[in-house]
UniProtKB/TrEMBL annotation:
This is Alcohol dehydrogenase. Its EC number is 1.1.1.1. Keywords: Metal-binding, NAD, Oxidoreductase, Zinc. Belongs to the zinc-containing alcohol dehydrogenase family. The gene is adhP. Residues 15-339 form the Enoyl reductase (ER) domain. InterPro entries: ADH-like_C (IPR013149), ADH-like_N (IPR013154), ADH_Zn_CS (IPR002328), ER (IPR020843), GroES-like_sf (IPR011032), NAD(P)-bd_dom_sf (IPR036291). It comes from Pseudoclavibacter chungangensis. CDD domains: CAD3.
Length: 344
């Protein structure tokens, strides 16, 4: 049997513009489905992938995209958990082994044999994609395909990161970086009863944070952000860092009060200096967090289904993908850009 010809945005070479062209997908294998893509969010991770920013790189040619929402068109052998016509999505955690110490202990996001959507496996920047039905997102009935797409990565990532801060209702959390991830983080935090201080380097992003419920905003380019956060909150109980500049990581450590927890989710290449004395004397916890499990994703989608979060989205055609990446590099996107395949 031959595969399916699709129209996709393809990375042929790191750092070069993506090519919108024909691309061939294989037939869906065991536990896989062929999905007609309706929409796909554009995550900054897709830009890191196309630039080859990280130590473990994908192999061109490949199709990025891991916030794809679509309709099951065909299923491979042994698929019993979804049917043709179901609304489902892909994810960064495209699949995992299911039997290692991480998979067996609720940490499938750390599985060393995982596959990643739009990275090690072709993703959703095409009019069709393949998913592993055991790991694909179940998109709630009645969801707006444009609004729900960013929940599949940005939403679940910040939802999980907020849980990992262990902050309780009424406590302060700083969200630093109010982009695709951060503007949704503000909303989950508010829904969880946390008090939010938003930090970014752009006033437009901070306006968006206010609209979504941040009580305090700090422009780190205009004022000393550590002093400003302490003045407004007395030091936060927690921080979630989604910013795409390494400088934000060192600053975040300064935002918390004693005993605070700082969760890193942004992934700019590079390092930052960390103050040993402060970390020890203030008893800080610093941890990384990577997307979320299938259960986290179902919970994150449930917040959306109950109307507790509303991603700010702008629809664009696939042909605009290189312009969208330019806007993302320049920090010019409000909320999330979502590619809309339904317009063609
Ligand atoms: P984005 O481009 O939409 O947003 C990035 C934001 O960071 C922008 O608002 C920008 O103004 C802000 N920023 C830049 N420099 C800053 C600074 N010095 N201080 C404060 N804010 C600053 O990107 P996104 O899609 O939200 O992704 C953010 C990062 O998170 C990327 O590195 C991405 O790869 C990573 N990511 C991680 C996970 C995970 O599971 N850990 C999941 C998804 C994305
Ligand atoms: Zn992502
Ligand atoms: Zn595993």
């Amino acid at each position: 049997m031959t595969g399916t010809n699709i129209r996709a945005a393809i990375v042929r070479e790191f750092g070069a513009p993506l090519e919108v062209d024909q691309y061939e997908l294989p037939e869906p294998g065991p536990h896989q489905a062929l999905v007609r893509v309706l929409t796909s969010g554009v995550c900054h991770t897709d830009l890191h992938a196309a630039e080859g920013d990280w130590p473990v790189k994908p192999s061109p040619p490949f199709v990025p995209g891991h916030e794809g929402v679509g309709i099951v068109e065909a299923v491979g052998p042994d698929v019993t958990d979804v049917q043709v016509g179901d609304l489902i999505g892909n994810a960064w955690l495209w699949s995992a082994c299911g039997e290692c110490e991480y998979c067996e202990s609720g940490w499938e996001t750390l599985c060393e044999a995982q596959q990643n959507g739009g990275y090690s496996v072709d993703g959703s920047f095409g009019d069709h994609m393949i998913v592993d039905t055991r790991y694909a997102a179940r998109v709630p009935e009645g969801a707006d395909p444009l609004e729900v797409a960013p929940v599949l990565c940005a939403g679940v990532t910040v939802y999980k990161a907020l849980k990992r801060t262990e902050a309780r209702p009424g406590q302060w959390v700083a969200i630093t970086g109010i982009g695709g991830l951060g503007h949704i983080a503000v909303q989950y935090a508010v829904a969880m009863g946390l008090r939010v201080v938003a930090v970014d380097v752009s006033d437009e992003k901070l306006e968006l944070a206010k609209k979504h419920g941040a009580e305090v905003t700090v422009n780190a380019r205009e004022v000393d952000p550590i002093a400003a956060v302490h003045e407004a909150t007395g030091g936060t109980h927690a921080v979630v860092v989604t910013a795409v500049h390494p400088a934000a990581f060192g600053q975040a450590i300064g935002f918390t009060r004693r005993g605070g927890t700082i969760v890193f989710v942004g992934l700019p290449p590079g390092d930052f200096p960390a103050p040993i004395f402060d970390i020890v004397l203030k008893g800080l916890t610093i941890r990384g967090s990577i997307v979320g499990t299938r259960r986290d994703l179902a919970e994150a989608l449930d917040f959306y289904a109950r109307g507790l979060i509303h991603p700010t989205v702008t629809a664009r055609p696939l042909e605009d993908i290189n312009a969208v990446f330019d806007e993302m590099r320049a920090g010019k996107i409000d909320g999330r850009v979502v590619v809309d395949f339904r317009e063609n």
